[in-house]
Amino acid sequence: MNPSIGEPGKFPFTRGVYPGMYRSRLWTMRQYAGFGTAEESNRRYRYLLSQGITGLSVAFDLPTQMGMDADHPLAKGEVGRVGVAICSLRDMERLFEGIDLARITTSMTINSTAAVLLAMYVLVAKSRGADLRKLSGTVQNDILKEYIARGTYIFPPRPAMRIITDLFAWAGREIPEWNTISISGYHIREAGSTAVQEVAFTMANAIAYIQAALDAGLDLDSFAPRLSFFFNAHSNFLEEIAKYRAVRRLYARLMKERFGAKNPRSMMLRFHAQTAGSTLTAQQPDVNVIRVTMQALAAVLGGAQSLHTNSRDEALSLPTEESARLALRTQQIIGYETGITSTADPAGGSYYIEQLTDSIEAGAREYLDRIDALGGTLAAIEKGYIQGEIQNAAYEYQKAIEEGESIVVGVNRFRMGEEAPIPTFRLDPTIENQQIESLRQVRASRDAARVGSRLEALAAAARSGDNLMPHIVDAAEAHATVGEISDSLRQVFGIYRETGV
After folding, report:
1. Would you say residue 134 has pLDDT above 90?
2. Which of the two ends of the chain, N or C, has the fewest CB atoms closer than 10 A to its terminal CB?
3. How many CB atoms lie within 10 A of CB 442?
């Protein structure tokens, strides 16, 4: 057996993190969802659960992601649009009404305000009698990729990193089964990176988080087993399979050789995958079903622990109930009808897959060496190096499409004439007013003095260097809002404004 390939479930985990992989248990089938008010999203979650999803995945609207309440002037027109609007603990209670948080895992795609939303989630679970030490799920909490590729940041990078390490330390004590970060290559790829860049820059971010946690005094083998990752399932089928194998092996080697991990679980890269939203086309949207199927199959052959499949209509709108169901059925057919789950590593041993795996890992290591030479990930971000590399790759990709070197079915080849429209999802236009009225009711019914004192304690902790999480939990419990908690931290940390790169 080639030692660089190894066996499933053994270092360097090229062939998967568990010996039996899907023979023992299928991946968690999630469908990323959230829109409008908490009540509307709750109805969609219950529907998806009735159709067979095995884990929840929450999308939050832009104001929530940016630490703004629904009545903030900059929130106008964005409330509930690209995710669910959450302003207070009361919204979080409504979001999970009738859902047993002790029996389901929840993934929350939230970054700048991850600490606040996780605090609210834990409070809801606690109020329902859940054993917090067994509470299971993931919070994305990956701020570095926001500076690199996505843009929903609030604070400058260094205080933002402090919030993340405070969450690591607090969660290790209070919710030890929770995945405290999902380090995301997905958004890096959506911004236009290559597969090699997705691996390299995700690993560079992981190195920065791990080093920050070590510098904060945390023990590597106490927090590293709860790190998780999030990757894109793109269109180059064999390259994507190899990408997951390469990043798993690269991470295992980095953890062992660079950081000296002793616990094998600290070297296991567990990841969620989502099919590539950037590849969906508004033209001939039914064709997106085939794209998503191939991308999902690559993620499964690559060994994903969790998967979301995009809906055919997402280039046009939020997915309809019917489209979301069909996307879920895609996963279920792969899992239950294809037979590929009967062996741990169906792609292992292919000459081309193994060559691609070696090539992607080598290319990623070259990038990591360059980033180290620049002074590390934060320095590379501040200098605009990583952003520039992604922008150049995105330009070359778009140029290849426009010049016909890369074919996109229905876009630059095999076009049709006028197409019949398909049914699309329509948001209730009164959502924003409903959410603002709900927010007003929360503010009118709470103890304002209690809220004020807890927000002051949070600001004092930010100035003193104390762990922020207990103070965020206290403020959320008093029904302080996402915007108010974020404002308390803004007063101390300031806000980040991107400079030209």
Report:
1. yes
2. N
3. 17
Cβ distance 112 to 153 under 8 Å?
yes
Angle between helices 287-301 and 321-337 (to 10 degrees): 40
Neighbouring residues of 161: CB distance < 8 A, sequence distance ≥ 6:
143, 144, 208, 209, 212, 378
Residue of higher predicted confidence among 150 and 68: 68
Residue 286 structural domain: 25-402
Per the CB < 8 A criterion, the answer to whether 232 and 190 are in contact is yes
Whole-number mean pLDDT of the chain?
Answer: 96
pLDDT on residue 28 = 97
Q: Determine which helix (DSSP H) or strand (DSSP E) holds 425, and give its type and residue range.
A: none
Nearest to 95 by CA among 35, 162, 28, 9: 35
d(CA 234, CA 273): 10
> Please, are residues 274 and 307 in contact by the beta-carbon 8 Å criterion?
yes
Rounded Cα distance, 258 and 181, in Å: 20
E runs forming strands in 293-354: 306-308
Q: Give residue 236's pLDDT.
A: 98
Q: What is the pLDDT of residue 501?
A: 46
Task: Output phi, psi for 59, to 5 deg.
Answer: -100, 130
253 falls within a domain: yes
What per-residue confidence (pLDDT) applies to 418?
85
Task: Please tell me what DSSP assigns to residue 26.
Answer: P
User: Tens digits of per-residue pLDDT, 217-243?
Assistant: 999 999 999 999 999 999 999 999 999
Q: CA geometry: angle at 305 spanning 303 and 311, to 5°?
A: 95
Question: pLDDT band at residue 419, thresholds of 50, 70 and 90?
Answer: confident
Give the closest residue to 183 by CA, choosing from 228, 243, 220: 228
Q: Domain for residue 417, yes or no?
A: no
Identify residue 98 by its one-letter amino acid code: G
Assign residue 179 the CATH number of its domain: 3.20.20.240
- Whether pLDDT at 97 is above 50: yes
What is the end-to-end Cα distance of the chain in Å, rounded?
46
Alpha helices in 51-194 (DSSP H): 62-65, 89-95, 114-127, 144-145, 157-174, 186-190
Do 338 and 26 contact (CB within 8 A), yes or no? Answer: no
In a domain, 4, yes or no: no
| Cα–Cα nearest to 304, from 25, 12, 4, 7 | 25
- So what's the pLDDT on residue 1? 57
d(CA 104, CA 312): 26
- SS3 per-residue string spanning 245-291: HHHHHHHHHHHHHHCCCCCHHHHCCCEEEEECHHHCCCCCCCHHHHH
Beta bridge partners of 183: 229
| Residue 172 covered by a domain | yes
Report the number of distinct structural domains present in the chain. 1
